[in-house]
Amino acid sequence: MYFRRLKELREDADAKQLVIAKLLKITRQQYSLYETGKRTIPVNYVKILAKYYNTSCDYILEETNEIKPYKKSS
Predict the structure, then answer these.
(1) CA–CA gap between residue 69 and residue 19 (Å, rounded)
(2) How far, in Å, CA of 52 to CA of 56, rounded?
(3) pLDDT tens, position by position, 28-69
(4) Pick from 41, 48, 58, 60: most CB atoms within 10 A?
(5) Helix axis angle, 17-24 relative to 28-35, nearest 10°?
């Protein structure tokens, strides 16, 4: 499930849950619920995290295993 990928990305970035929670303007406890799969993460948060981690929403949601972000079309 995607929540494992949230944790992997955060740990790979050497970030604490509190840092990510502040980025999303939520509490650490709320973010923890997303990372443990107890709550579904809203799409707008996935978009913010994809930009932060320099990846795609599809990667976070496990629709692809390609970590590189998509190229922007002209």
Answers:
(1) 22
(2) 10
(3) 999 999 999 999 999 999 999 999 999 999 999 999 998 988
(4) 60
(5) 110
What residue has token string 């707008």?
44
In the CATH hierarchy, which fold is given to the domain comprising 2-60? Answer: 434 Repressor (Amino-terminal Domain) (1.10.260)
In this predicted structure, what is the pLDDT of residue 1? 81
Domains in the chain: boundaries: 2-60
Measure CA 52 to chain center: 8
- The CA distance from 60 to 63, in Å, is 8
Whether this model's pTM surpasses 0.85: yes
